[in-house]
Each structure stands twice: as C-alpha cells, then as structure tokens.
Amino acid sequence: MEKALKNKLDSNEFALWSQFLSELTGISLSEDKEYLIIERFHGLLKKYRCSNYSHLYFMAREPERNDLREELVDHITTKETSFFRDLAPFEALRNTVFPRLLEQCRRAGEKRRLKIWSAACSTGQEAYSLAMILQEMGVSPHEYQITGTDISRMAIDSARQGCYNRFEVERGVPEPLLERFFKPNTRNWQVKDSLKESITFVQMPLHRPFMLPESFDLIVCRNVAIYFAAGPRVEMFSRVSRHLHPHGYLLIGSTETAGDLGNLFREVHLEPRAVFLQKK
What is the value of pTM for the model shown? Predict the structure, then answer.
C-alpha cells in the first residue's frame, strides 16, 4: 500500500499540489505532469519522514516550514541552461542590439550605465554570457550592470559562486573565452572576478510583483513563461514591460511566441534570425 501511495497521486492530491505549486512558483501543471511531483519530491519524503505525498503537502503548508517550501521550489523548477544558449540572439546582441543601446547610453548629457536584467537566470550562465560579449566588444565593466534573478535559492547560490564543471563550460564556451574569463579550480572552472564585477544575483520570483526599483535597457526572459497559464503569463509580461526602457529590448525564448502580448510589445526581427520585442 505504501508503495502505491508513493507512485501515484489521486485526483484530490494532485489538485492540492497543483494549486500549491502555482502559488509558490507560478508554474501551471497539467494532469499529465503528475510524474514531476512524484519524481522530484520523492527524496523529500524520506528527508522529512513523510509516509506519503499528502503528509509532505500538509507539512509544507505549515507557516513555519519555509525551509521545506524553498526545497519544493528548488526541486520543481527546471534549471536547464547553458552558456550562449541559442547562438542566434547572442549574435544579434553583439552585432546590433548592444551597439544601439550603448550609443544611447553614451550620448552627451545622457551618459549612464547599460542596465541588463537576466530574468530566470538559473545558475548564471546566461548572465555571464552577456558579460563576456560586452567585454569582448571592449566595454568596461563600469559601463554596464547585469542583474540576474531566479526563484530558486539553490540556483542563485550557484550563480554567485560561478563555478562550473567541464561539461558545462565545454558545452558552450569557446576556448579563447574560457582562457580569458575562467580559471581552473580542481576539476571545475571558476569565473574570474573581472567577469563577476558588474553582475548581481538576487533571488526573486516572476509570478509576483517585482521588487526592482529601476528600468532596464535589455531584459532577457527566456523559457520561463512557457510554464505559466495564459493569464498569469500576460500579467507577468505586463509587469516586465514596466521595467523596460522605452527604447529597450526584450528577448524571450526561441520557442515562445508574442501572440498574446500584442498590446504590450511589437516584434523586431534582427539578423541572424533573431526576434526581439520592444514596447509599443
């Protein structure tokens, strides 16, 4: 009987978990994603000595169990990322977007730092990739500021450390950049302080009002809204738009569409085959 409980949720259990996880993360789980709860929370049953998933659910609902809720968020969120993931938008950033934005920032009487927000930055590879492009272009770290945010405390801690294994760096970092921006650390590669200098990582969810006091020239928010239901997705991007500079750019995932965001943004097609959004 215990084995059956641990490998299957009844409809009431799934409804409770689905609603709870939506509250915690904004993620909308359909019934065919029940296996995610079972697989990703299985280890927590033993850790918290829970006999089944209902027990774990009600424990996580207790007001003082913030530690458990943090672990649920860490386990259920997808942390798939890599350096220079999807090369086309990074080439468009290098060739078109960054030159335009830097020109705006350097104008007489308007000289200011280029501000970038890497939303849902996971373990930091995206933010470091953006910084590498800028420094390759000859931009000083004092000329830009990158803010990386993610809902997962575990991911943000990893991003701050900036330590990656051989597979993670060989997957996307060209050798010249590896030599310039990383240093060997036992079996891993450590991001150099010169790359970390103008990057800040903050734990922050996207499905609630943002605690960000400023606007950004570039917002990168890729492959996170696909996990939201339609209504919360539009609400999230509506909040994002309030933090986008009037002449700034928003980059969403290559598999995402802006179809339901037409009242907020217009598409800008840039070579090589990259689509960015700008405020209407």
Answer: 0.92
